[in-house]
Amino acid sequence: MIDALFRGDFASAPLNVSAMMLGLLLAFACGHGLAWIYMYTHTGLSYSRSFVNSLIVIPTVTSLVMMVLTNSLVTAFGMMAIFAIVRFRNILRDTLDTTYVLSALVVGMASGSMKFSTAIVGSGVVILVMFYLWFTSFGSRHRYDMILNLHWSRSVADMNEMKNLLFRHSLRSTCASQRSSEGYEGTDISYRLLLRDPDRMDELLMELRALQGVSRVTGLKAEEESEV
Question: Could you give the 3-state DSSP secondary structure of residue 128?
């Protein structure tokens, strides 16, 4: 049965299973590298886990496209026509939705061009990649647990005691904003904290409120920052 699967392509060129699997896995690995780079270097507010997932799936699907189009100019023009129809008649707001549409088109073209084994193996790889991305929630980022806002009435040079308190409760603290102006007493400060123990957030707020010079303390639990 396995031998029949590997001999199931009736295209002009015979199927090289080893080369096909190597190409698909290489595309998956390279897409993974691009996705990791994007995750760690992205600094804007429009971070999207869906887009990160697409960076992994699209190279794999594109590799499958090139295998289907090998030595076939007619098939290439056919794919261009199909993509034009999808582009102008549908507006896809999610990049991962676009990837699913592209995957379905490629599998359909592989089947229509009688590359049956390519369609089966390729769609199986894409399905496994999609399941992997869903199961692992790949692309999610959680860089802080809490947004802390407070008013500091003492001198800015006397903030070491407060910073030591934040250090005891957090693995990482980032000062997101610090605002003071002429004629305004004290300083309004906002922190982003990655807590050592998120369940002890109330304890941190209580200790801050008891600290001399600190007032108007508010804490907001931060959710995952990516849009799903």
Answer: helix
% of the chain residues with pLDDT over 90: 0
pLDDT of 87 over the 70 cut: no
Structural tokens at position 41: 């270097």
Q: Which CATH number fits domain 146-221: 3.40.50.10240, 3.30.70.420, 3.30.70.260, 3.20.20.60?
A: 3.30.70.260
Do the Cβ atoms of 141 and 226 come closer than 8 Å?
yes
Helical packing angle, 116-136 and 95-112, nearest 10°: 160
Take residue 81 and report the two structure tokens written for it.
């026509």
- Pairing mode, if any, of strands 187-195 and 146-152? antiparallel
Please state, in angstroms and rounded to a whole number, the distance separating the CA atoms of residues 141 and 52. Answer: 11
Residue with tokens 């690995």: 29
Residues 152-169: tens digit of each pLDDT: 888 777 788 888 888 888
pTM above 0.70, yes or no: no
